[in-house]
Amino acid sequence: AGDPDGAIEDMKEIGRLFYENKNDDAFAWGGVYNAAITLAMLPGATVNSVIEGALKYATPEMRTEIEHGLAIADKYTDPMDRKFREELNSMYADSTSPYYATNRMTEYINSSIYENVTCSFAIFKLTKGNVEQAVMVANNRGRDTDCTAASSGGLAGALTGTTTIPKNWIDQLETGTKDNPYTNSHMTNKATAQGLYRAFQNK
Questions:
Q1: Are 73 and 81 in contact (CB under 8 A)?
Q2: Phi, psi dihedral angles at 160 (to 5 degrees)
Q3: Nearest CA among 67, 73, 101, 104 for reference residue 87
Q4: CA angle 186, 192, 195 (to 5 degrees)
Q5: What per-residue confidence (pLDDT) applies to 118?
Q6: How crowded is the C-beta side of 98, counted as CA atoms within 13 Å?
Q7: What region does 2 belong to: left with phi over 0, alpha with psi -120 to 50, or beta?
Q8: Which helix (H) or strand (E) holds 35?
Q9: What are the mean pLDDT values of the chain's consecutive 10-residue runs (203 residues total)?
Q10: What distance in Å separates the CA atoms of residue 113 and residue 131, rounded to the nearest whole number?
């Protein structure tokens, strides 16, 4: 927590499990996102401080693209406004857009790191770090719902903790983790959180 450079280095190491090419765009874009996660856990962090701090790790081209998505978010006040989702989608789904995702995806055809990071930042900004709203907006947006919901919700959670997560979501996760015979871990939410906290303390 609070160590963007360390988080980026960790991401590069773990990311090689999925991407053989160390020069893949996913590392640069993932670096910006992971920087945001660490900055969100700093005492006194705000939505704006997280975004501004993370953008320092973006190339000029990446920054321009992410700021385009943030500018879309700035047009709206209601995160659930359908027009917000539609405008954000057109940035990547419209074949005339300079950010058209289909022309840029090479490794994972149904998932675009460019779209995921930009949309996560835009959703995070408009929802003001509210986890429930961030996950709902990302899912209602369509397209790569699981990645964007996880990314925007994770970013919001890093900033606001459990304060904006519905209790029934936490309870359902606890039950599902306990009852699923195929999960990698049957640790409780509390045990997982405590383990992560100890890891942060020892970083």
A1: no
A2: -110, 0
A3: 73
A4: 130
A5: 97
A6: 7
A7: left
A8: helix 25-40
A9: 85 82 85 95 95 96 97 96 95 93 73 91 97 96 89 96 93 89 85 85 74
A10: 21
